[in-house]
């Protein structure tokens, strides 16, 4: 794994990843899980935001993309960071946001930003479980008249078939998976990384992490 990705994975583990068995977390889908990923602290951290922008830009820099965005608010920091880095690298990519519902005033738009029909875009999101947020953004973008080139997500939870559902609509790249975040805890339990501490929440038993 390249250096930038290793640094971002460590930040995600420190700031965004939690493990708790009693009580378990309730996900947006209503399902229970001992694992919870709140990406916001990492995405709004100066280093985290920069790393995300650089990594996503590295993925899209070789394709002809006009804009990058997704469903607010999970996609917004990723899109904005990538757009900023793209300008600094000399290949500007616009950012846009997809509202969860259209505005009831003004123009009644659902997509915000300097975006035009027939432009080529990348859809982003922070964490996927069912994939519903990404698919909602894809539908809104296509209804607006945009061409979807691919989807990029920060973390795939590898649950409830979200990645498989998204791939029915577009090509998908996941920067990290839940399994990779778990590996940090496994290394700590095995004593391979004495300087690392376990993430917030209950300290997991080694046997639980191997499941």
Structural class: alpha/beta
Principal-axes geometry comes out as globular
Spatial sequence of strands, sheet with the most strands: 7-6-5-8-9-10
Overall strand count: 11
Report, as a whole number of angstroms, the end-to-end distance: 23 Å
The portion of residues assigned to helices is 25-40%
Instruction: Give, in order, the helices and strands.
Output: HEEEEHHEHEEEHEHEHEH
Q: What CATH first level would be assigned?
A: Alpha Beta
Gyration radius over CA:
18 Å
CATH topology: Rossmann fold
Query: What's the total helix number?
Result: 8
β-sheet strand percentage: 15-25%
Largest sheet: 6 strands, mixed
The number of domains is 1
Chain-averaged pLDDT: 87
CATH architecture name: 3-Layer(aba) Sandwich
- Indicate the low-confidence ranges by residue numbers: 192-211
Structure in words:
It is globular and about 45 Å long. The protein is built from eight helices and eleven strands. The chain is 38% helix and 23% strand. A six-stranded mixed β-sheet has the order 7-6-5-8-9-10, with helices on both faces. A three-stranded mixed β-sheet has the order 4-1-11. The chain has one domain (3-202): Rossmann fold (3-Layer(aba) Sandwich). It has helices at 3-15, 40-43, 46-60, 76-88, 132-144, 162-167, 178-190, 206-209, and strands at 17-19, 25-26, 32-33, 35-37, 67-71, 94-98, 111-112, 120-128, 147-156, 172-177, 200-201. β2 and β3 (32-33) form a beta hairpin. The chain is α/β, with parallel strands linked by helices and 211 residues long. The relative contact order is 0.16.
